[in-house]
Amino acid sequence: MTRPPVLAATRNPHKLHEIRDLLRDVRVSVLGLEDLGIPADPEEEELEPFDTFARNALSKARYFHGRSGIPTLADDSGLCVDALDGEPGVCTRRFAPSDWADRWGRDEANNRWLIARLERVEDERRGARYHCAIAVADDLEHAVFEGRVEGSIVRAPRGRGGFGYDPLFVPAGEGMTFAELPGGVKRALSHRAVALTRAGGWLRDHVESPRPTAHRVEGPRPAP
User: Fold this and answer.
1) What is the mean pLDDT of residues 10-16?
2) Is residue 59 exposed (0-12), middle (13-18) or buried (19+ Cβ within 10 Å)?
3) Radius of gyration of the chain (CA)
4) What is the predicted pLDDT for the residue at 184?
5) What is the CATH number that goes with domain 5-208?
6) Which pLDDT does position 222 carry in this prediction?
7) Above 90 in pLDDT, residue 210?
8) Is the pLDDT confidence value at 224 over 90?
9) Residue 35 is a catalytic residue
């Protein structure tokens, strides 16, 4: 039986691979934007204006559902550091100054900037968490599912796996960073795994085995 399509609205190939892997037990075909030939548009840079992961994820899911016409899943996730009052938070991808990003590339610049910001912070105050919001949208409904993983920030990058801040983040109860842990272990522990496990139930009900339902809205609404 052909698996119904779902669009994973991300242009990050690492994130797309992780989403596909985490949804492998849901009988849907997870497509990327390139699979559907959806070209990048400058207006995509304006899809995350909100101050919560949930609102930003929902904004992206609705936008790309409108462009694709198929059920769409979108993610907004980031790192929240206690000693920085929750920063970088929703600004996780653009945390480092632009000149740092031009010099080292976005991921390395963000890691270097985080290390610099925490240089004088004691080990016991380096608590942090990864937060993920997964929004799903089709013609009738939308929903948002969230996941978090607690941990701490180390003083220097460790490991070559993962992406983003993974070389600096040690999940609670582990001795290795996300970049040092085997890929399968990292994905099983991750904030994205928690959120996608919850979203998988929605996909099973609405995409894998759709059934007529009355219109309802779940999750937060974006601001007008």
Assistant:
1) 91
2) buried
3) 18
4) 85
5) 3.90.950.10
6) 44
7) no
8) no
9) no
- Contact (CB, 8 A) for 97 and 33: no
How many other C-beta atoms can be found within 10 angstroms of the C-beta atom of residue 69? Answer: 11
Which one from 21, 25, 75, 76 is the annotated catalytic residue?
Answer: 76
116 CB-side CA count, 13 A: 10
| Cβ atoms 109, 116 nearer than 8 A | no
Q: Are 66 and 2 in contact (CB under 8 A)?
A: no
Answer for the pair 134, 48: CB distance below 8 angstroms, yes or no. no
Interatomic CA distance for residues 65 and 137, integer angstroms = 7
Q: Which two tokens stand for residue 87?
A: 């920063």
Cis before 88 (ω within 30)? yes
| Calpha distance 198→224 (Å, rounded) | 27
Q: What is the average pLDDT across 111-122?
A: 97
